[in-house]
Design a protein that fits this description.
The protein has 403 residues and is an alpha/beta fold. The chain contains five helices and 19 strands.
């Protein structure tokens, strides 16, 4: 649908190459003074929340009966970078599956806004903001191998809103640099759900607002349906992660640059306390899904738009289109129909389906238009096909009129 420009890596433009060369040259001349800020304080070693309960949960697992995995077939799901979706069946065939996936926590410097030079040490799953979309069916099990590279600065974990169990698996997946863990959980509820890192305390919002979140879609085994039980099918998925950033600035209003992941911890906490994001973007950066990076579709194509917002409420709107079918909460409930604007509750993912009827450029925006136009919460669909004058026609071109 669009080329993968996100994350982790600065866009390869002449401006960025020069900008990187200047920083590197300055660093060579003056050491770490080239960076706007030094490590303010050591990254806090976070104790997992309610450690005694986590320990009790782990002990309870030891004492519990082993899970009955008979009848399950193991399959590997190759995760892909957003806005794409992994290969999957819309209607499940065969019995339930154990879907094996692997994710690596990656800390990497990412340009958020090329025009201002704003950047962030993004904390990511598999290097992208948002993390990759995971797709399974109700009754399947997801078996995640989570790895934290040895060169990481911080511990990480994962909380699956789709799972059943204390802390969504967060208490069982805390891994320090150089460690890995395996977590298996059963998808018991159909719908779209967020996942995110939750190490404990202030580190929870710190990690989430540094990009460490993504979405899981749990499809009904017989696929999506309308209120009358008729099957609904989509031709493609557009996976959109809305990310709010709170990037520290210096006294003159310039964005600060940091040498390593975690160096901005103290400054970020102060910025986060304002509850006012400096950026609110789709898929990690301003322009990640517009212009040359726009999503592609054709007239007659049905697109399932999956929207994840792990921290703040959002109100998506497709300018020139509609939400033909919208699942704001669960696939268990009948979809809402014909919506002009829909709602993403903070800490959730949801889905909206639309069949494009006209060619042209459609803007998909957070309809807090301040956030869309000033903070970056916008994407474009470029749709090819034949124009239909019965749906819209310019009857008279702009002209001067006499008074």
């Amino acid at each position: 649908m669009t080329k993968f420009i996100n994350p982790g890596l600065t866009q390869t433009s002449r401006r960025n190459v020069l900008r990187g060369s200047v920083l590197a040259g300055a660093a060579a001349m003056s050491g770490t003074a080239a960076f706007a800020n030094q490590r303010r304080s050591a990254i806090p070693r976070i104790q997992p929340p309610a450690a005694r309960f986590i320990k009790a949960e782990a002990q309870a697992q030891v004492e519990a009966e082993p899970a009955d995995l008979s009848g399950y077939t193991r399959v590997k799901q190759e995760l892909v970078a957003p806005p794409f979706a992994p290969e999957h069946e819309q209607v499940a065939t065969g019995g339930p599956k154990i879907i094996e996936i692997t994710m690596e926590t990656t800390e990497r410097l990412m340009v958020v806004d090329e025009d201002t030079g704003a950047s962030v040490w993004a904390l990511t799953y598999n290097g992208s903001v948002p993390g990759p979309l995971i797709i399974c069916h109700e009754g399947d099990m997801v078996e995640l191998t989570l790895r934290n590279p040895l060169d990481s600065q911080m511990e990480h974990n994962i909380d699956f809103h789709a799972s059943t169990g204390a802390l969504g698996g967060g208490g069982l997946t805390h891994i320090f640099p150089g460690e890995e863990t395996v977590l298996r959980w059963k998808a018991t509820k159909p719908g779209c759900f967020t996942y995110h890192c939750a190490p404990g305390g202030a580190m929870i919002p710190y990690h989430v607002t540094h990009g460490m979140n993504g979405a899981v879609m749990v499809l009904p085994r017989d696929g999506l349906k309308d209120a009358d039980g008729n099957p609904l099918r989509y031709d493609s998925i557009a996976y959109i992660g809305e990310q709010d950033y709170y990037l520290p600035k210096d006294a003159s209003g310039e964005f600060l640059t940091y040498e390593a992941a975690g160096d901005d911890y103290a400054d970020s906490l102060e910025a986060m306390r304002t509850l006012t994001p400096t950026h609110c973007v789709f898929n990690g950066a301003v322009g990640a899904l517009t212009g040359e990076n726009a999503l592609q579709a054709k007239v007659g194509e049905t697109v399932l738009m999956i929207h994840n917002q792990a921290n703040r409420d959002s109100r998506p709107h497709l300018i020139g289109g509609h939400g033909n079918y919208v699942w704001e909460t669960s696939f268990s409930d009948p979809p809402l129909t014909g919506l002009e604007t829909w709602f993403v509750r903070g800490g959730t993912a949801m889905a909206a389906m639309y069949t494009f009827e006209q060619p042209g450029v459609y803007a998909y925006v957070n309809h807090n238009l301040i956030e869309a136009t000033l903070l970056g919460a916008a994407a474009h669909f470029v749709v090819e096909g034949s124009w239909n004058n019965s749906l819209m026609e310019q009857v008279v071109a702009p002209r001067v009129f006499e008074t």
